[in-house]
Amino acid sequence: MARTEPDDRVRGVAVPGVRAAPDERTTRDDGLAPDADRTHAGRVAPTGRGAHEQPAGPDPAADRGGRGPRRPALGVLIGTGAAVFVVTLVVAVAIGPAHLGVGEVVRSIAGHLGARVAPVPALHDAIVWDLRLPRVLTAAAVGAGLAVAGGVMQSLTRNPLADPYLLGLSSGASLGAAAVLLLGLGVLLPVAAFVGAMLALLAALTLARVGGTLTPTRAVLAGLAISQLAAAATSFVIFWTAKGDSYQEIVAWLLGSLAGTTWQSVAIAVGACVVACLVLVAAAGRLDAFAFGDTAAASLGVDPNRTRWALMAVVALLTGALVSVSGSIGFVGLLVPHAVSPVTGPSHRRLLPVAALAGGVLLVWADTLARTVFEPRELPVGIVTALLGAPVFAWLLRRARGAAWS
Questions:
Q1: Lowest mean pLDDT among 59-68, 184-193, 271-280
Q2: Closest CA to 290 of 30, 41, 18, 19
Q3: Distance between CA 306 and CA 316 in Å, rounded?
């Protein structure tokens, strides 16, 4: 990489790799910063440590006598998170009006996977395999996908309040879902919600391009406009035509609900989550580069516009697929990345996998509360995530004392 002048320093922050001589191994082979030194959601930290060597510039740990923040290794974080994730899935399946033992749940799942185990009563087996397990797996996939999508959007827009629904995806999906439910075509709900989300995204990006360059700020503002327009259209359709059961079904879906999920829902949510998350985690180095702004990212070999819109397209496809099976579930994509960043540090290579596990665990327990706390009645899970998320987010703000996002 060519040597750059000191003006490439962003707000007094030494960009990893930009002052190194050509023969110094301070960047990766693809010219990107190994781990961009930033805190989450656009918060720029003084310096950091790259994947290979210490980058040029002062090290804040030196000012503390070499005692920098010590964080668990990535393998420890993922291993611990995966163990908690698996235990959560099994225990959540066991909880419900018909109480099941954890052993019965394990035997039922193992039996369907071909293992030779003691048989489970037919009724209990049907409850586990046909009712609870698809719902729990869908909740886990939706929570993981929303958490990863939120972390990526916060980085791409450098906005700590960004979430996966920023570009009008949720409102577009809601309009499509409301339309098919009112027409009595509930079997097409996932398809209609996904198509609605994609049309909203297309409208937002088209509006953002009118009369100017497509920038993150213009995209966000256009997304807000399209979101409000689609929300108004959805409200009008519901007010004018919805009655009885269709009205309750639409409202439950708009508030976010995992009731009635099937193995088809699992396939959609898990498939979209796995594919999109692998792509986004593979782009972690490029996401780190955005911490220093577009100019610094370009100096590190990243094409800001092409990378931003390519990753936003992946986030949009992921979010559209998730919303199509769960409705609009708030706070997961906003809260989880902020909650895990103190443990993982700023690197997206660490943050995104841990956020996925944490988001899955959060939504599984939120849905478990939604279906059990007021049984036999069931709350939309979006209400539970808002009730849990708002105070936790306020606590995180108080803990940070506003300095991290200033």
A1: 59-68
A2: 41
A3: 15
Dmax (CA) of the chain:
73
DSSP codes, 166-224? TTSHHHHHHHHHHHHHHTT-GGGHHHHHHHHHHHHHHHHHHHHHTTS---HHHHHHHHH
pLDDT in tens, 306-349: 888 889 889 988 988 898 888 889 889 999 999 999 999 989 99
The two structure tokens encoding residue 116: 């030779």
Domains of the chain are 79-400 (1.10.3470.10)
Per residue in 217-267, pLDDT (tens digit) is: 888 888 889 999 998 988 888 887 766 666 777 787 788 889 889 999 999
Cβ proximity of 330 and 160 under 8 Å: no
Distances (CA, A) of 68 to 27, 50, 64, 71, 356: 22, 14, 7, 9, 26
Give CA–CA dist 222/217, Å, rounded: 9
Report the pLDDT value the prediction gives residue 401, as an integer from 0 to 100: 57
| pTM of the model as a whole | 0.78
- Please give the helix or strand (H or E) that residue 301 lies within, else none: none
